[in-house]
Amino acid sequence: MSNICEHDYLRRKCPFCEIAQLERENEQLRAELDRLKRGGWVSVKERLPENGQRVLVYYRIGETCDITETRYVAGRYIGYWGGGVTHWMPLPEPPEEG
Questions:
Q1: Can you name the residues that pair with 55 across neighbouring β-strands?
Q2: For the chain, what is the domain count?
Q3: Are 58 and 68 in contact (CB under 8 A)?
Q4: Does the residue 73 lie in any domain?
Q5: Which of 32, 35, 62, 87 has its CA 20 to 30 A from that of 46?
């Protein structure tokens, strides 16, 4: 894939494309900030965990709601056999020993 765009008649880094890229990154960062302000939970409708990522999941089965730790692998939550996962969040970093 070429780094040259339609604006790049001088074969330099295109400021128009660079601005567009920065605007996209800014929007992604704002969305992440909003998510963190909401407490860190991510809707499964919004985004799924990375393959192999350990996460907390919030799920509902009938009248029961709960939270459990699991790993997301190949589109499924390992060690969790129920349905109804609505939200997830990354596990926090472990505490520093000392």
A1: 70, 90
A2: 2
A3: no
A4: yes
A5: 62
Q: Do both 67 and 82 map to the same domain?
A: yes
Residues 46 and 26 in one domain: no
Q: Is 56 exposed, middle or buried (0-12, 13-18, 19+ CB in 10 A)?
A: middle
Does 32 share its domain with 52? no
- Helix, strand, coil shares of the chain as percentages rounded to 5? 25, 30, 45
Token digits for 5?
A: 């765009």
Q: How far apart are the first and last CA of the chain?
A: 49
Residues 91 and 85: beta-carbon distance below 8 Å: no
Contact yes or no for 89/46 (Cβ under 8 A): no
